[in-house]
C-alpha cells in the first residue's frame, strides 16, 4: 500500500543515516509537532529513500568534482551566462523532463511528479560577489579548498545537482513536480532580480521553495530580512576652492546629510524591531583644490519589520532633503545643489511561521540526521517567496567554510554529505513522496 504523511513512529538506527544521537527537541528554541517527526522517520525508513541516502555518500566525489568545475567558471554580477550554460548542460546530462533558460538568465529543469500539479523548487544562485577578472582558480592546501565563490554559492549549485542525481539513480518518484533552478542576481546590486522574475505575475508555478546557499547544515532561514539601498548623488556647479569659494559644495552637503541621518536613525533603531543603517561607499570630487561638482554615497537600510523599514526610509529621505535645502540657503554664489536619490536595492521582508508544515519538516529532517537546527532571519533568494506568503526556506549545502565574500574564501568537505541528505529529506517530504508500507 502507498501512504502519505504516515503517523506511526519508525525508529531508525543511527547507522542508517550515519548521524550522531540527538537531544530532546523540547530543550531547543523551536517546537516540533510529533506528527512531522513520525512522518520523516517513516519516509527515511523507506527502502528507496535509504538507497538515495546511501547514494549521497557514494556520489560525493562527483559532487566535489562538480564543485571544482563550476567554481572555476567566473560568474561576476550581471555576467553569469557562461556558468549558466554549463549548469544547463549538467541538468540535461543528469536527466530532466524539460530544461530552459528564461529571459532573465535563470536556469530551470523540471522533473515531473506522478500525481500532483504542485511544484516544489530547489535552487542555488549562479552569481558571486567577485568582479570580472578575479582569479577563481581553486587551490588546495591539505583538506581545504580556496577560491573566490567556492562556497557562496557554488556549493549550493552542486548540492542542487546532487539531489537530482540521487533521485534519478535511485528511481525515486515524487508526487509533486520538482523544479531545479540556478538563479541570477542574488548578490548585492543584483537585487534578487532572478527571483523577482521567477515570481512575477505569469511566472512558473511554484508552491514551495528551497534555496541552498553556502555551506553548513544547521541553519533554517524562514524569515526574510528586508532592505532598501540607495545611491545618493548631490550635484552643483563646482569650481576652484579659492576663486569660487562660497559656491555650494556637494561634499559638504553630503557630510551634513550623513550626520542628520545618523542622528535621526540612531534614535529610532535603539528599540522596536531590529533595524540597521549603513553608509557603505562615498565618492566624488576631482582634486584637493576643486569644489566638487558631484558627491555621492551608497546607503543600506535593513529591518526585520516592513513597517520599520518604511519608517527608516522616511527618516533617510528627510535627512537628505534637509541637508541640501540648508546647503542651498547657505550658499553665497552659484547655482543651487540638486539631489538625486536612486533606489538601487529593494528586498522585501516577511516570515513563514515556525508552525508551517514546510518549516516543521525542515526541523524534523534535521533532528532525524542528528542535527540541532537553528532558525533564523537573513537576506536570501527566499525573501521573495516569503514576502508573497509562499512557503520558503534557505538552508546550507553542507561542509565547513569561512571568509565568504573575501578573496580567501575556503571550503572543507567535512560533513558535506549531511547538508545534502537534509535537503533531500526536506524535498521528499514536501513533495509528498509515496512510501511503501
Structural class: alpha+beta
CATH architecture of the largest domain, by name, is 3-Layer(aba) Sandwich
Strand order of the largest sheet: 2-3-7-4-8-18
Distance between the termini: 6 Å
Tell me the β content: 15-25%
The major β-sheet equals: 6 strands, mixed
- What's the total count of β strands? 21
CATH top level assignment of the largest domain: Alpha Beta
How would you describe the shape? elongated
CATH fold-level label of the largest domain = Aminopeptidase
Number of domain units: 2
Annotation field: number of helices: 12
Give the % helix: 25-40%
Q: CATH superfamily assignment of the largest domain?
A: Zn peptidases
Low-confidence stretches: 1-27
Q: What is the subunit arrangement here?
A: single chain
Round the mean pLDDT to the nearest integer and report it: 93
Q: What's this model, at a glance?
A:
This protein is an alpha+beta fold and 437 residues long. The chain is built from twelve helices and 21 strands. The chain has two domains: 311 residues, Aminopeptidase; 122 residues, Alpha-Beta Plaits.
Summarize the structure in words.
This protein is an alpha+beta fold. The protein folds into 2 domains: 311 residues, Zn peptidases (Aminopeptidase, 3-Layer(aba) Sandwich), CATH 3.40.630.10; 122 residues, Alpha-Beta Plaits (2-Layer Sandwich). The protein has 12 helices and 21 strands. The chain has a 6-stranded mixed β-sheet. A 4-stranded antiparallel β-sheet has the order 5-6-20-19, with no helix packed on it. A hairpin with a 5-residue loop joins β2 and β3. α2 packs across α10 and α3 runs antiparallel to α12. The chain is elongated and about 85 Å long.
Amino acid at each position: 500500500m502507498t501512504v502519505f504523511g504516515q503517523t506511526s513512529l519508525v525508529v531508525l538506527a543511527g547507522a542508517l543515516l550515519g548521524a550522531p544521537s540527538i537531544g530532546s527537541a523540547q530543550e531547543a528554541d523551536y517546537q516540533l509537532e510529533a506528527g512531522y517527526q513520525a512522518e520523516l522517520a517513516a519516509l527515511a525508513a523507506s527502502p528507496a529513500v535509504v538507497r538515495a541516502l546511501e547514494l549521497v555518500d557514494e556520489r560525493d566525489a562527483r559532487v566535489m568534482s562538480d564543485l571544482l568545475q563550476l567554481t572555476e567558471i567566473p560568474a561576476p554580477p550581471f555576467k553569469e551566462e557562461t556558468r549558466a550554460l554549463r549548469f544547463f548542460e549538467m541538468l540535461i546530462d543528469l536527466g530532466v523532463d524539460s530544461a530552459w533558460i528564461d529571459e532573465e538568465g535563470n536556469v530551470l529543469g523540471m522533473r515531473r511528479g506522478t500525481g500532483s500539479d504542485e511544484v516544489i523548487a530547489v535552487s542555488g544562485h549562479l552569481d558571486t560577489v567577485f568582479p570580472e577578472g578575479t582569479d577563481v582558480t581553486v587551490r588546495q592546501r591539505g583538506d581545504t579548498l580556496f577560491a573566490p565563490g567556492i562556497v557562496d554559492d557554488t556549493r549550493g549549485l552542486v548540492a542542487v545537482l546532487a539531489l537530482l542525481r540521487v533521485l534519478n539513480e535511485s528511481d525515486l518518484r515524487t508526487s509533486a513536480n520538482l523544479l531545479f533552478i540556478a538563479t541570477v542576481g542574488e548578490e548585492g546590486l543584483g537585487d534578487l532580480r532572478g527571483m523577482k522574475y521567477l515570481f512575477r505575475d505569469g511566472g512558473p508555478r511554484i508552491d514551495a521553495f528551497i534555496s541552498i546557499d553556502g555551506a553548513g547544515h544547521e541553519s533554517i532561514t524562514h524569515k526574510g530580512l528586508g532592505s532598501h539601498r540607495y545611491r545618493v548623488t548631490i550635484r552643483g556647479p563646482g569650481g576652484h576652492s579659492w576663486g569660487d569659494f562660497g559656491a555650494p559644495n556637494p561634499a559638504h552637503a553630503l557630510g551634513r546629510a550623513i550626520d542628520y541621518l545618523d542622528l535621526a536613525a540612531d534614535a529610532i533603531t535603539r528599540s522596536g524591531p531590529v533595524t540597521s543603517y549603513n553608509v557603505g561607499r562615498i565618492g566624488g570630487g576631482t582634486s584637493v583644490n576643486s569644489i566638487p561638482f558631484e558627491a555621492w554615497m551608497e546607503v543600506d537600510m535593513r529591518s526585520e519589520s516592513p513597517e520599520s523599514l518604511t519608517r527608516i526610509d522616511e527618516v533617510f529621505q528627510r535627512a537628505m532633503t534637509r541637508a541640501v535645502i540648508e546647503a542651498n540657503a547657505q550658499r553665497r554664489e552659484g547655482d543651487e545643489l540638486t539631489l538625486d536619490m536612486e533606489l538601487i536595492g529593494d528586498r522585501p521582508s516577511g516570515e513563514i511561521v515556525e508552525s508551517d508544515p514546510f518549516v516543521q519538516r525542515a526541523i524534523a529532517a534535521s533532528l532525524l540526521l542528528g542535527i540541532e537546527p537553528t532558525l533564523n532571519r537573513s537576506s536570501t533568494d527566499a525573501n521573495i517567496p516569503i514576502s508573497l506568503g509562499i512557503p520558503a526556506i534557505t538552508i546550507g549545502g553542507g561542509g565547513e567554510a569561512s571568509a565568504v565574500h573575501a578573496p580567501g574564501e575556503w571550503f572543507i568537505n567535512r560533513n558535506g554529505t549531511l547538508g545534502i541528505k537534509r535537503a533531500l529529506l526536506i524535498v521528499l517530504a514536501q513533495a509528498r513522496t509515496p512510501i511503501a508500507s
